[in-house]
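Need tokens for this chain, all 134 residues.
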Amino acid sequence: MAKKKKRKNSKPKKAVKRIPIAPPPKKQKSSKAKFLIAVLAVLVIIFFVSAFYNKYKMNSEAEKIIDFIVVGDEVNEQALNSFMSTDYNELKKELGITKNFLVYFEDEDETIIPVNGIYCFGSKKATLNGMNCG
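Here are the structure tokens for all 134 residues:
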């Protein structure tokens, strides 16, 4: 059997004693802080839901007006004349629209096109390029 050679510089290892360190205690949030965080989270959720709902509702109301005036890719002149001659508040009620609106037409160059000499029609509160449309 072969003998094991001892190394000259080999020192016996000392046992390292490990001392367990406890993590610092976490501070508990008070019930008031938890309540405020929950209320804030609910308010943020309500804000975003209402913003998306209003945008959706506005788009659907605009589609009602477009569906009333446009057939296919063309403006129905009879429907447009009827639309322009009807009282604004009566038109809102008839179409089930709750928001104020303004209708105008523009060409490919974004130039406003007058219809029967009128550049825009709709809410009396609305203006288009400084012109009162109501």
